[in-house]
């Protein structure tokens, strides 16, 4: 029969054995980790450890002054702002003469050579009265480069001669002639129209020129509805007054000799022998 003490020894560990086991475990030598290519111990620090607080630590504020750059305030306008319409007048300002350019003797456009085919391909000058009439009717454009020459002059082209002949035939037969000038950009359309108007001024005809037709349809001018009209019509009184003023200045020599021949119902009283020039002046007021 087995002893009870043996069963107790198997079921309960001995205290001396635990002490010896623990003591033996404490005596195990510590093996240092070494690199595969070296026999020395690793001397580097643990990369996962927290960085010490030093002069450049994250929680350490830097000493000295901090440079703060402020935004510059917007510039203060000290000058006088431009008046109404001053910028537009400066943008449309046209210089018709250059005193630094060489003076060239040119034949002026006149009654004798207004439709002469012999002038095709030649440059002719414009007289002072013709230039004044063209300026008043706003025939000159800023894209035509008039400030490069000493005096205004035009190149007589074949198309310009044909247009002048068509105008002469229409004037002789007293009929209405309608022409459309078409061409690419910067091909000389405005200069061709200027030549036609210059020919009309030389012949003593009345010229009615609308310089910028887009201003009549893009709401750049003042307009008001006309009462009792179906469909509703609009009147541009400001533009009409300015246009009458330009007509009177451009055709002053001709309109001063013409008088009213019919009676008109106008808001202002009119004299019987009133000249058309005076009528344009009254309409421009």
From TrEMBL:
The entry lists its GO molecular-function terms as: structural constituent of ribosome
Q: Kindly list the places in or outside the cell where this protein is found, as annotated in its UniProt entry.
A: Mitochondrion
Keyword Signal found: no
What ranges does the record give for the region Disordered, renumbered to this chain?
66-87
Q: Which UniProt keywords apply?
A: Mitochondrion, Ribonucleoprotein, Ribosomal protein, Transit peptide
Q: Which InterPro entries match?
A: Ribosomal_mS29
| Record's keyword annotation contains Lipid metabolism | no
From the UniProt record, list the coiled-coil ranges.
Answer: none
Q: Name one GO cellular component term.
A: mitochondrial small ribosomal subunit
Taxonomic superkingdom: Eukaryota
The UniProt family comment states: Belongs to the mitochondrion-specific ribosomal protein mS29 family.
What protein name applies here? Small ribosomal subunit protein mS29
Say which species the protein is native to: Botryotinia calthae
